[in-house]
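Hey, I was hoping to borrow your eyes for a little while. I'm sending you its amino acid sequence along with the backbone structure tokens. Take your time with it, there's no hurry, and the full record follows here.
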Amino acid sequence: MEPMFAIYFATILILLWVSWTDIKTRTISNEAVIALLLCVILLAWLDYGTVFLFPSVTTLIIGFILFLFKVIGAGDVKLMSVLMLTTPNEQVMSFLFLTTVVFGLLLIIFGWIFFRQSIKQQGLPYGVAISLGFLSNLWLFS
């Protein structure tokens, strides 16, 4: 099996794990984020020969501020920051658009129609939108 395929496959499996646990428990485990970090670093290095620290650190700082104001969960911030390591500067807006507008909006609409009570009580499992936004962005630019 080609190494790139194995890394993509592992990344998809980890993002499925992240999405599933976020739906079930509204948490994104540190173990999943660390496993994803290893895959993302390999992906970025093999695809681009570098990791993209500026988008990642910027996301971490802005995300931390949003977390302090209870706008976003800490797991979502960690997940976005790790995924940004493999997102070149020119793809950041695409990733954010896909995550927030396309999949975030779909998640809100779908959740509000079918799982309104759960979302009112537990919040929105935004790790799903982040994962789908990342995978779509990866697919669009690969």
Q: What stands out?
A: The longest helix spans residues 3-25. The chain has one domain: 3-141. Helices lie at 3-25, 30-48, 53-68, 74-83, 92-114, 116-122, 127-141. The chain has a mean pLDDT of 95.
